[in-house]
Write a structure and sequence with these properties.
It is a single chain. By secondary structure, this protein is of the alpha/beta class. It has 4 helices and 6 strands, in the order E-H-E-H-E-H-E-E-E-H. Strand 5 and strand 6 (about 95) form a beta hairpin.
Length: about 110
């Protein structure tokens, strides 16, 4: 039996609501939402042991996630930028993501 991939979503935006609803339909993904108001969000991310973290690049407080990656560099970070329909990966690779299906292909 395959294990679910844990995808952590960080943010409170409508964009993240949409991503959560879209990815939540995929039974192979365990989607966990972390709101910006959660105390100790970095510790919460660590305890999840996510396979991937997705956040809204335009979120005003998204910079805190960099602290997570100093300690967990093997966990990919996908920053979604709705203003230009791009996904920026921690590795600096750029992907065009116009739909949830495009985002799913990036994850796979």
């Amino acid at each position: 039996m395959d294990t679910q991939r844990v995808i952590a979503l960080y943010g409170d935006s409508l964009l993240m609501d949409t991503v959560e609803a879209s990815l939540g339909k995929n039974i192979e993904l365990g989607v966990v939402r972390i709101c910006t108001s959660v105390p100790n969000a970095v510790e919460r991310l660590k305890s999840l042991h996510p396979d991937l973290v997705i956040l809204d690049l335009n979120a005003p407080d998204s910079q805190f996630v960099l602290a997570f990656f100093k300690e967990q560099p093997s966990v990919p970070l996908l920053c979604l930028d709705v203003t230009c329909s791009q996904v920026l990966a921690l590795s600096c690779q750029h992907y065009t993501a116009l739909t949830a299906n495009d985002l799913t292909r990036v994850i796979e």
